[in-house]
Each structure stands twice: as C-alpha cells, then as structure tokens.
C-alpha cells in the first residue's frame, strides 16, 4: 500500500511540475503579454527628448534609428546641429518624415548666449531694461517667425526667472532674465509667448520654481541651492501665465530648494512638481525636466535609475537628454529599459506612464 501511495505522490508532483512549466511558457509566449510590453515601451519612448551631434540625417547617426524605429517623442537642437537655415530646415524635415507621430522639435532660443542662431544676440535682459512693448514684440516676432520657417515647434523659452541676483551664475550673469520686477517679467513674457503662438510655435516657461536668486557660493557639488535666497514671489510669473492660459509647457529645474522640499532637487520632487506646480498653481500641461545628464545629479547621489524614478513619480512628463559632453548613442534604449523595468517592479505605475503619454499626445495634437 505504501508503495502505491509513494507512486501516486510522485505522479502528482511530476504532474504539478509539468503544469507549472507549461503555464510559465504560455505566459512568456502569450501574445497579449508581448503586446502589452510593446504598448508600454511605445508610450515610454514618447516621454524621451534627445540631443545629438550631427548636421545631416544619415545612417551613421543613432538619432535616425531612435526616430524611425523607436518613435522617441522629440529632439533638442543646438548650435552644433546648425550650419545654415537651409541645412537645418532640411534636417528637421528629414526627421519629421521618418516618424508617423509628429516629433517635438525644440531649441533654447532665448536670445543672447542661449541660442542656436549666431545673429540672435538680443538678450531678455536687454528687452526688459528697455521695457517697451513694441520693441519686445519686434524682436519676439522676428525670432518666432524664424523658428516657424525652419520647422521648430517648441521653444524652451521664455525665461521667467526673476533677476534677483544680477550676478547669478546661471541667470543674471548671462542676461537671461527680463527683470527683478515680476510685472516687467510678466509683461514681456506675455508678448514673447503671443508672438510665438501667432507663428504656431509653442513655449516652455523656465526654470520652475525660479532660481534667479542663486549665489555662486551656494552651488554645492555642482548642485545650485537656493534655499537661503528664494522667495515665493519668484512664482508670480508662472502663476500669472498659467492662470491666463499662456503656458504650453513648463521646464522644471534641478535646483535644491529646502523651502519646497528638504530632500530632493526640483524636478525630482513630488512636493515641487505635483503639489506646487500641478495642484497649487493648477498647471495641467506638459512638464519637462531639466538636463538629466547634468553631472550634478549623479554627483549628489542620484544615479540614472533613481533620478528617472523620482522624476516620473514627481509628475514629470518629458525627460531631457541633451547629450552635451557625453554623446550616449544608446540613451534611448537605456532609458526605455530602465522605465519599463521600474514599471514591472511596481516602482512606477502604468497609470503614471499613461498620464504622461496622454499629455504628450494632447500637446502634439496641437502642433
């Protein structure tokens, strides 16, 4: 009798083992699982904007595959991509023709030092100092029409930081702010935005929550810290432009501000992005990170996976990888894999990816 029981026990164990293997195999080969993973990755790819090196779209550029095969959400163009208007117009046209989904083609065209066009030398500080609506409108129209003509659909401008410290190593020193007076900033930013909209170019306000007060001595391990200098008054340009439906997108900076979050820099901070920008200021549009490859991020203890997880959980929709000093040609694959693994591991929800994807899709529908 014992022998039969042992045989029955062994048979049951073997049957369970076979059943387990078959079902695991079914799960891994289930077309629905593969489809779900592909859909997730396609949504994640739309959250990525990449800078690249090169002036022509040929097979040697990884960005061609990133657009054509991987459907990334957008690109950033810099002076390294520009030789002439005709050249960059062709480059942009070639990129858009690769993709079935419209690309976000963005630039930092603030004027002055932060521009891809060498002849755009008028700074925001210059315009704010004159503070004449006609003068601002003239230069804004010139800039916006130029962007439209070559195919740019998003300008990462205007800068609406208050010029609290004229010697600020990121803002004041380079004439990037209209003024220390919030009304002057608001008035000139509104003119700039309206000029862009008249030319079918969107704008991204920056750098939320404002860091025009930064002092050089408060940059610690490369990370700007405005905890001792920032004031809630620096939110006023953002608040006004959001309230008056003049805000297409907001770029969140990488500054540390203990007034808002004692632990994390701005674009990694739930308190800054979701609680302040989304909930308090009521912004429901596209939220863009600052440079994810800034060395200060990793230097201060945030590796790529950690910073991506924090940013998406904070409420950021679009992740920027300019590829400045390091040209990482695998950045798209790396980031998609990181985010997909974070979703599978339960550290980012699919709902968060869906929310970002829906906001990006809504933004692109208006391009």
Q: Can you walk me through this structure?
A:
This protein has one domain (45-365): TIM Barrel, CATH 3.20.20.300. The longest helix is centred in the first third of the chain and has 28 residues, at 2-29. The chain is α/β, with parallel strands linked by helices and 367 residues long. It has helices at 2-29, 31-45, 62-68, 85-98, 124-130, 133-150, 182-198, 236-243, 270-280, 295-299, 304-314, 331-344, 350-365, and strands at residues 48-51, 74-77, 104-107, 154-155, 202-208, 219-220, 223-224, 249-252, 286-291, 318-321. The protein has an 8-stranded parallel barrel. Strands 6-7 form a two-stranded antiparallel ribbon. Mean pLDDT is 92; it is low at 24-28. The N and C termini lie far apart (79 Å). The protein contains 13 helices and 10 strands. Helices cover 47% and strands 11% of the residues.
> Which strand order do you get reading across the main beta sheet?
1-2-3-4-5-8-9-10
By CATH, the superfamily comes out as: Glycoside hydrolase, family 3, N-terminal domain
Please give the CATH architecture.
Alpha-Beta Barrel
CATH topology: TIM Barrel
Uncertain segments: 24-28
Helix share of residues?
40-55%
- Give the overall shape, derived from the CA principal axes: globular
């Amino acid at each position: 009798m014992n022998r039969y029981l042992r045989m029955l026990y062994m048979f049951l164990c073997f049957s369970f083992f076979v059943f387990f293997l078959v079902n695991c195999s079914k799960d891994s080969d289930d077309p629905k699982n593969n489809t779900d993973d592909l859909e997730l990755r396609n949504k994640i790819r739309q959250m990525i904007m990449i800078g690249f090196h090169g002036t022509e779209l040929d097979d040697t550029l990884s960005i061609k595959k990133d657009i054509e095969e991987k459907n990334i959400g957008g690109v950033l163009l810099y002076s390294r991509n520009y030789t002439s208007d005709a050249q960059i117009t062709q480059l942009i046209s070639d990129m858009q023709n690769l993709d079935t989904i419209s690309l976000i083609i963005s630039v930092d065209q603030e004027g002055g030092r932060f521009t891809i066009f060498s002849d755009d030398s008028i700074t925001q500080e210059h315009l704010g100092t004159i503070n004449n609506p006609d003068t601002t409108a003239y230069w804004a129209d010139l800039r916006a029409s130029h962007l439209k003509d070559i195919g740019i659909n998003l300008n990462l401008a205007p800068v609406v930081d208050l010029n609290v410290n004229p010697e600020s190593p990121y803002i004041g020193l380079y004439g990037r702010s209209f003024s220390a007076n919030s009304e002057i900033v608001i008035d000139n930013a509104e003119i700039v935005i309206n000029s862009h909209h008249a030319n079918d170019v969107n704008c991204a306000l920056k750098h939320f929550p404002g860091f025009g007060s930064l002092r050089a001595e408060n940059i610690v391990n490369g990370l700007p810290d405005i905890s001792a200098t920032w004031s809630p008054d620096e939110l006023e340009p953002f608040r006004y432009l959001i309230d008056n439906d003049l805000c297409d997108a907001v770029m969140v900076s990488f500054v540390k501000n203990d007034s808002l979050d004692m632990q994390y820099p701005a674009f990694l901070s739930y308190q800054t992005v979701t609680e302040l920008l989304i909930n308090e200021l009521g912004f429901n549009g596209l939220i863009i990170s600052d440079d994810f490859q800034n060395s200060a991020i990793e230097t201060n203890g945030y590796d790529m996976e950690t910073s991506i997880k924090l940013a998406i959980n904070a409420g950021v929709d679009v992740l920027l990888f300019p590829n400045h000093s390091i040209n990482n040609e695998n950045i798209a694959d790396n980031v998609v894999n990181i985010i997909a693994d974070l979703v599978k591991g339960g550290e980012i929800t699919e709902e968060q990816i869906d929310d970002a994807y829906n906001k990006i899709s809504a933004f692109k529908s208006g391009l």
